[in-house]
Specification:
The chain has 160 residues and is of the alpha/beta class. Helices cover 30% and strands 18% of the residues. The protein contains four helices and six strands. A six-stranded mixed beta sheet has the order 3-2-4-1-5-6. Helix 1 packs across helix 2.
Length: 160
């Protein structure tokens, strides 16, 4: 299993626009930038790809943002646990240093011999941890032992 000891960081699926409105509230999806129908279809299609590749996830985590939670749920790969270490600090809606400290602590707590974890999050969060920038729906494989990261080409995944 080539994903043992790895975290797959996934950027939420397509959500048109940029950032979030000034009146953003974590508890109210109507105040956030959300997935559109293309984004929902993208999330479902990525879930089908990951399932067909037979990747087993020990856990699925998501940012509290509605576009991330919806992406994670639409993947259809299992129960989703909201985790504030994946929240976006792009517009200071979450504190950058505290958020990244929580995420680094979580990464250190994961076993390098366990099946992969999937973390659905934001571009800024993925970039801060891995140094990589990915498009909506993009996935980065992060190695818990080495800290190395590379973008996963979903088209390269084996199908059953």
């Amino acid at each position: 299993e080539r994903f043992i000891g790895k975290v797959l960081f996934m950027r939420h699926a397509l959500a048109p626009g940029f950032g979030d409105p000034d009146y953003f509230s974590i508890k109210d999806c109507s105040t956030q930038r959300n997935l559109n129908e293309n984004g929902r279809a993208q999330a479902r299609a990525i879930g089908v790809k990951l399932a067909a590749a037979n990747i087993k996830f020990s856990a699925i985590y998501s940012s509290y943002w509605c576009r991330c939670l919806e992406t994670a749920q639409l993947l259809g790969l299992g129960a989703v646990t909201p985790f504030d270490g994946l929240n976006s600090f792009f517009q200071n809606h979450a504190p950058r240093d505290a958020t990244l400290a929580k995420l680094r602590q979580k990464l250190e707590s994961l076993s390098p011999s366990a099946p992969a974890s999937l973390m659905v999050t934001h571009a800024v969060t993925i970039r801060a941890i891995t140094g990589l920038s990915v498009a909506s729906g993009g996935v980065v494989i992060y190695d818990l032992k080495t800290g190395n990261a590379l973008e996963l080409a979903l088209s390269s995944l084996p199908t059953r």
